[in-house]
Amino acid sequence: MKPETIAVATATAFFGLMVGWIIGSQQARGAATAGQPAAAQTQAAPAASAAATPQLINEAEVQALKNAASRDPNNALARTQLGNIYFDAERYDDAVTWYQESLKVAPKNADVSTDLGVSFYYLNQPDRALKQFDYSLSVDPKHTKTMLNMGIVRAFGKQDLEGAMAIWAKLIELDPGSADAQAAKRALDNLKAAHPEVGAAAPAAPKTGRDN
């Protein structure tokens, strides 16, 4: 597991047309994976996280990390790594436990907070996910991965299309050249194509800037 990233995977079909997403922020989970079958629902249910086969758990690694966490109550990294392992294995209840433990030690880590929010989403708890994202943004108001994920949960988990469009437009304005902004721009374009009546009422998305 590498530090500092998200994974956003394109899928198919949101209300018949919009791009779907797999949104584990997961501290550098890598580049988007395209072309997977849609799992996004029009009901408040999480998208299936299986853009790829869930990773098998290395029990020896898990035990070593648990030992490290037990020995040092201030070891946030070991707790985060345990959360990541369980997230990758789609054991989201366990991921939540360890991300929460990590945040008790390092409460200002917006990456871990956002991973916790994503885990809540996959547990079909979009309200808790959004509340956690609010906390992430209170720690770092410019955390673009949180903003991208917040729009996804608003659109998929709450069917709040205007809210999703507003946060994505804010992200694009904040950091137009970023990969997160480009993903938000694609989401906005797809959503406006599927629901032009909503797009007319939402803030216009600025053009993305140069990528550097």
Assign the structural class, choosing from mainly alpha, mainly beta, alpha/beta, alpha+beta, or little secondary structure.
mainly alpha
Please name the fourth-level CATH homologous superfamily: Tetratricopeptide repeat domain
Helix % is 40-55%
Task: Report the sheet-strand fraction.
Answer: under 5%
Task: Give the low-pLDDT segments.
Answer: 1-51, 201-212
Average pLDDT over all residues: 76
> Class, according to the CATH hierarchy?
Mainly Alpha
Order of helices and strands: EEHHHHHHHHH
User: What is the helix tally?
Assistant: 9
Compute the number of strand runs: 2
Short description:
The protein is mainly alpha-helical and 212 residues long.
List keywords for this structure.
212 residues; mainly alpha; Serine Threonine Protein Phosphatase 5, Tetratricopeptide repeat; two-stranded antiparallel ribbon; 2 strands; 54% helix; elongated; disordered N terminus; disordered C terminus
Write up what this structure looks like.
With 212 residues, this protein is mainly alpha-helical. The protein has a single domain (9-39, 53-199), classed as Tetratricopeptide repeat domain (Serine Threonine Protein Phosphatase 5, Tetratricopeptide repeat, Alpha Horseshoe), CATH 1.25.40. Helices cover 54% and strands 2% of the residues. It is built from 9 helices and 2 strands, in the order ββααααααααα. The protein has a two-stranded antiparallel ribbon with strand order 1-2. The protein is elongated and about 55 Å long.
